[in-house]
Design brief:
With 60 residues, the chain is an all-alpha fold. Helix content is 95%, strand content 0%. The chain crosses the membrane at residues 5-23, 29-54.
């Protein structure tokens, strides 16, 4: 095995490790954004439900 082949193998291994880390970070960020969107939607629904409940109790 010559020097070029060794560096090629090392480059491939390093590229795979970097890609693995980047994909892991990307999925973590996407999961966090997805959770934020779900929390925001639930918060808006709860807000309007509470507003309707308290508006109804004021009229009585």
């Amino acid at each position: 095995m010559n020097k070029t082949t060794v560096w090629t193998v090392i480059g491939v291994v390093v590229a795979i490790i970097i890609a693995w880390v980047l994909v892991d970070v990307l999925f973590s960020v996407l999961w966090f954004i997805g959770k934020l969107v779900v929390v925001a939607v639930v918060a808006v629904i709860v807000f309007f439900v509470l507003r309707a409940i308290f508006a109804r109790s004021r009229r009585d």
